[in-house]
């Protein structure tokens, strides 16, 4: 890296010589997040929800990284830890080479601008007392205080048009819009400050099918046009297949498998991934079959020993209940955390 | 004779700003042991149809026309008392949220035994025995113990199983399930839907499955009815409708599913949104969103046309079916 480039990019200092373009945009390294539930003062062990247990992911520039898993697997918690909305109990978060989880408020401010979030419920995430214009202007005025009123207004208009919204909506209130329109306003709000990275937590789950398609299209367009990197959280695997470049599959606070979207859908390796994929409803006249997943997800307060999936896994043996599997790299770069896959049992 | 025959059902909600017509003359039937899907997006009127069948419309909603014939009697003409003998007994309902069915302060056992005793003249012990059998059928582990559990002690999937067990208690002829798995995870959805499918078959129970999910409908039902703005726009054998949809709305719904398009491609979207009930467009209600619209679509609402058994409400149905429309 030349000296000039190094000076303009002070965020790059920590990672030494790696050129910025090859460096992953976001890294979560060995993230642990436990929620302390208080409990009684005489209790020897305080009840703790172990939401994330040593999860590492790397998000490359320009990709749409998807996190999938069922309720309670920790996918939203991981997104919130990455965004800095929650502090990790252990591990670290890096953004563009800089460790950000331990930064103070002021030092973190430039990262807030570069990382934006879209939430699931567009009925709850927009302030009902503010006009769309006010909602959209606020982040720009906060992060770019030097812009004139005219420049801010121009920016609002430009972003609204770019996500397919009528710029004339500005003086209206959120309740005047449908779910899909509100979600497009939420996307516009996230894009107002020219972020590099957008976290979308189940952004289309609350919407009707035909509207889901509109919102997904807007997200795919903006990703290409603005060179955005997405972290997309969803439980809907057909959306992942359509939208994602790489996918992380989570179960009970651990990462089971991480692969290219195509590889994951063609050759799922982890037993949980296989069951999850087989359970996706498809348009077919074949009757629905039980997924072959006995029991229920155990409580995150009382994790199973060894592999967290072992008591429901069709391939489990004694080693699985004793030893926690580590993510192992396969020949094609897929990471799989499973003893059965490692030993070729499956 | 059909088990349930809904004819020209009209449901209205009088409001200060005029009367809203939630269903404008829908017709469909369910045979004994048949599984029928009702599909549509929010506001299409699918839940209103379910509530109308059970005479559970919330005021000021009312049935303004048509008939609902179930096991030979017109449900719209029944007294409140006679209706009670049908509802929860001959017809059971399963809601999206199991807590709409379950009482949070009563044990599962109490709720099941009460339901049985309300409809049958049987002893407590007998009711208990039936309750345990039903819980076993929905694959709840150690059903005897579960009778003493409260709903909050169970997971979402387990609660929905209990609701299915309650729905089956009185051996109904028809179950109406309104988005029963929408709030559940995919593996639990597959578990519950395959269970419902198997139970409907083994008990010979008819099923009306109300959902927005065409994929689920295709894997569970035998016939499907597609609703749009309170009208049936297409209906027929499920396999035929999902594989060879004719109405532009059904085609749009199927094309918008991300699982059916090549990865990364732009999804086909239906432009605009479902009209609200006080602003249903003139002519065909779908015309402002339709890719195949012609002048005549704006003038008169098309009739439901039969293309050998496959019903379609579109003036261009024949062309669309033959693949000639552009």
Topology of this structure?
The complex is a heterodimer of chains A (346) and B (326).
Chain A: H1 3-8, E1 26-36, E2 48-59, E3 64-68, H2 75-83, E4 90-95, E5 98-99, H3 105-114, E6 115-118, H4 132-143, H5 149-162, H6 179-191, E7 197-201, H7 209-226, E8 229-234, H8 237-243, E9 246-251, E10 254-260, H9 261-266, H10 271-278, H11 318-322, E11 328-329, E12 335-336, H12 339-343
Parallel strand pairs in A: 3-8, 3-9, 6-7, 7-8
Antiparallel strand pairs in A: 1-2, 1-4, 4-5, 9-10, 10-12, 11-12
Chain B: E1 4-15, E2 18-30, E3 35-39, H1 46-53, E4 62-70, E5 73-74, H2 80-86, E6 91-94, H3 108-119, H4 124-137, H5 143-146, H6 156-168, E7 174-178, H7 186-203, E8 206-211, H8 214-220, E9 223-228, E10 231-237, H9 238-243, H10 248-255, H11 295-299, E11 305-307, E12 310-312, H12 317-322
Largest sheet of chain A: 8 strands, mixed
- Approximate helicity band of chain A: 25-40%
Specify the oligomeric state.
Answer: heterodimer
Could you tell me the mean pLDDT of chain B?
Answer: 92
GO cellular component, one term (chain A): plasma membrane
Organism (chain A): Roseospira goensis
Region (Disordered) (chain A): 1-23
Family (chain A): Belongs to the ABC transporter superfamily.
């Amino acid at each position: 890296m030349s000296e000039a480039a190094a000076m303009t990019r002070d965020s790059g200092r920590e990672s030494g010589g790696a050129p910025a373009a090859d460096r992953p945009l976001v890294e979560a390294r060995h993230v642990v997040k436990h929620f302390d539930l208080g409990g009684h003062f005489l209790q020897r062990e305080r009840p703790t929800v172990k939401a994330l247990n040593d999860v590492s992911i790397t998000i490359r520039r320009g990709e749409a990284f998807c996190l999938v898993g069922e309720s309670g697997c920790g996918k939203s918690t991981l997104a919130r830890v990455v965004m800095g909305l929650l502090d990790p109990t252990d591990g670290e978060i890096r953004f563009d080479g800089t460790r950000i989880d331990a930064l103070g408020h002021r030092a973190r401010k430039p990262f807030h601008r570069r990382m934006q979030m879209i939430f699931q419920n567009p009925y709850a995430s927009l302030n009902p007392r503010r006009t769309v214009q006010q909602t959209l202007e606020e982040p720009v005025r906060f992060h770019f205080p030097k812009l004139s009123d005219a420049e801010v207004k121009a920016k609002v208009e430009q972003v609204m048009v770019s996500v397919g919204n009528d710029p004339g909506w500005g003086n209206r209130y959120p309740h005047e819009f449908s779910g899909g329109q509100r979600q497009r306003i939420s996307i516009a709000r996230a894009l107002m400050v020219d972020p590099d990275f957008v976290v979308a937590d189940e952004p289309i789950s609350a919407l009707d099918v035909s509207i889901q398609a509109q919102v997904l299209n807007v997200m795919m367009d903006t990703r290409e046009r603005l060179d955005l990197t997405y972290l997309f959280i969803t439980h809907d695997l057909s959306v992942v297949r359509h939208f994602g470049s790489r996918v992380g599959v989570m179960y009970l606070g651990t990462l089971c498998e991480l692969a290219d979207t195509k590889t994951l859908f063609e050759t799922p390796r982890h037993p949980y991934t296989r069951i999850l994929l087989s359970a996706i409803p498809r348009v077919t006249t074949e009757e629905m079959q039980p997924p072959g997943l006995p029991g229920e997800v155990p409580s995150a307060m009382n994790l199973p020993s060894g592999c967290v999936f072992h008591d429901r896994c069709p391939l489990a043996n004694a080693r699985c209940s004793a030893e926690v599997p580590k993510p192992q790299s396969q020949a094609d770069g897929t990471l799989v955390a499973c003893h059965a896959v490692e030993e070729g049992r499956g | 004779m059909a088990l349930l025959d809904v004819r020209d059902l009209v449901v209205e909600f009088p409001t200060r700003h005029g009367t809203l017509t939630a269903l404008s003359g829908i017709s469909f039937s369910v045979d004994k042991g048949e599984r029928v899907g009702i599909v549509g997006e929010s506001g299409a009127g699918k839940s209103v149809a379910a509530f109308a069948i059970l005479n559970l419309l919330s005021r000021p909603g009312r049935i303004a026309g048509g008939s609902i014939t179930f096991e030979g009697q017109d449900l719209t003409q029944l007294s409140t008392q006679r209706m009670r003998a049908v509802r929860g007994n001959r017809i059971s309902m399963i809601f999206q949220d199991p807590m709409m069915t379950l009482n949070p302060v009563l044990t599962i056992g109490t709720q099941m035994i009460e339901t049985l005793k309300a409809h049958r003249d049987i002893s407590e012990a007998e009711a208990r025995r039936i309750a345990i059998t039903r819980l076993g059928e929905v694959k709840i582990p150690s059903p005897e113990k579960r009778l003493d559990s409260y709903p909050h002690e169970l997971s979402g999937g387990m609660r929905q199983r209990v609701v299915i067990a309650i729905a089956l208690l009185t051996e109904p002829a028809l179950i109406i399930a309104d988005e029963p798995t929408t709030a559940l995870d995919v593996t639990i959805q597959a578990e519950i839907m395959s269970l419902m499918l198997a139970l409907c078959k083994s008990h010979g129970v008819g099923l009306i499955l109300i959902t927005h999910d065409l994929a689920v409908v295709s894997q569970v039902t035998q016939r499907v009815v597609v609703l749009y703005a309170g009208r049936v726009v297409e209906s027929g054998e499920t396999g035929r409708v999902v594989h060879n949809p004719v109405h532009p709305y059904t085609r749009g719904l199927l094309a918008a599913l991300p699982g059916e398009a090549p990865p990364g491609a732009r999804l086909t979207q239906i432009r605009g949104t479902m009209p609200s009930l006080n602003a249903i467009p003139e002519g065909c209600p779908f015309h402002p969103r339709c890719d195949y619209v012609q002048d005549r679509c704006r003038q008169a609402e098309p009739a439901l046309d039969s293309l050998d058994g496959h019903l379609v409400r579109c003036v261009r149905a024949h062309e669309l079916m033959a693949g000639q429309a552009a």
